[in-house]
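Need the bound structure for NDP, inputs here:
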Amino acid sequence: MKAESGADKPSGSTRGLAVVTGASAGIGEAIARRLAQEGYRLLLGARRGDQVQRLAAELGAQGKVVDVSDEASVAEFCSGAGDAQILINNAGGARGADPVADAESADWRWMWEVNVLGLMQVTRALLPALEASGRGHIINISSTAGLEVYEGGAGYTSAKHAVHAICQTLRLELVGRPVRVTEVSPGMVQTDFALNRYGGDRERAAAVYRGVTALTAADIADVVAFAATRPPHVNLDQIVLRPLQQATAYKVSRRE
Ligand code: NDP
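Answer from helper R.:
Posting the output first, comments after.
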């Protein structure tokens, strides 16, 4: 997808500051790499400081430790981002796949605290800066799990449905103000997502992607860059993308 429209890029200068959460791996790392190529300055955050700082050094960006579920950590992370123009709320993930009857409270709490409260806390902290930039943009990495449900997935799907509701609410609350809100909803993406979901069980994680050409993190970064570089009056509300072999979370055509 060709991102450059020219319309969003002030002539002769770099683009504004983009803040990316969950930039230590996977989709967040790919978004950081792509936005650096597009000329954005970057503030990158995640809990694994060594990984985020290594990437930041490579990209000439700023990297900081942040736990988005911790208000004090979010305040410290956002303290140097008064000129933020774009916020990519990417930090998130799933824990477990138990039916509601066997739900682990700790897993649900983690999913809601990171995917939902974390997203709210970073958004709340940066909204004044985004609006003051005159061309603010919040891009939330949601999921097709925010649009559909599957057995054993309620902890994650309910959290991503909440993200979908927050995106829609933000668009109502911010209408007429210079802050765009885009929800990016991917299906299956090949990252450490499944490994983290299944507590490091490599076999179980590999089974998720077996026989499927999944989306790559770079595919998501491509779409994010496209949304970010539209002219400021164009708001892409929601972008849903899946692998060709995936129709829903549970309807996947696998090669033998
Ligand atoms: P990964 O597990 O590879 O990456 C998750 C990222 O989130 C890591 O950088 C991790 O960094 C960060 N993170 C987790 N918890 C926190 C926290 N409390 N504070 C700050 N950062 C945190 O998975 P993906 O790259 O695939 O996931 C990225 C996003 O994409 C998530 O929101 C996920 O729900 C969503 N998504 C993924 C899909 C997939 O199939 N892979 C499909 C649809 C959506 P660290 O551990 O260093 O803190």
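Comments: Residues 35 and 158 are 30 Å apart (CA to CA). The two ends are 30 Å apart (CA to CA).
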